[in-house]
Design brief:
Elements (H helix, E strand, L loop, with lengths): L1 H17 L23 H4 L1 H4 L4 H17 L18 H8 L3 E3 L12 E5 L2 H4 L1 E5 L4 E4 L1 H10 L5
Antiparallel strand pairs: 1-2, 2-3, 3-4
């Protein structure tokens, strides 16, 4: 009797594993990514995927920013001061050059009103990632950014 029950159970499991196992393609050839359009709409479905600047990159930028500031009387004044030409900094260098990451230059010790040192380009309007003066990084809203900017207007 036990062998019969086990045989029926095994057969039903085997039968269930074969039925209903159709191959579903998540992306059809006409709507999904192709070699010509790789993952163009991924950020619309998963907003974090579309984000260009991540927290690790801002942390790394913060380390370089504060290293420079520790040796000099003020923060970096140009891109070359950060030393991003090394392998691990090239991604951040590209983000800054492409305008995806905005860096506040020439912040001095006396300038305590400046509470944001770097931020994503969309942060002023939509919120986003930011590097704060205290060295912390994280997401802030557009309203929080506006409060920070009241104390320290953007540089031109």
């Amino acid at each position: 009797m036990r062998i019969l029950c086990l045989s029926v159970l095994a057969a039903s499991i085997l039968l269930m594993s074969f039925t209903g196992c159709k191959r579903h393609h998540a992306l059809s050839p006409t709507t999904g990514p192709t070699s010509a359009r790789p993952a163009e709409n991924v950020g619309k479905v998963f907003p974090a995927v579309g984000r260009y600047v991540n927290q690790r990159q801002l942390d790394q930028l913060g380390v370089l920013y504060f290293e420079y500031w520790g040796v000099n009387p003020r923060g970096p004044s140009r891109l070359e001061d950060l030393g991003l030409d090394k392998d691990d900094g090239r991604q951040i260098l590209k983000l800054i050059k492409d305008g995806e990451l905005v860096v506040v230059w020439n912040v001095s010790d006396n300038n305590t009103n400046c509470r944001i040192l770097a931020y994503e380009k969309n942060t002023p309007t939509q919120g986003g990632m930011a590097l704060r003066r205290d060295g912390s990084t994280g997401s802030i809203t557009a309203a929080e950014f506006a409060e920070y900017q009241k104390a320290f207007p953007p540089q031109k």
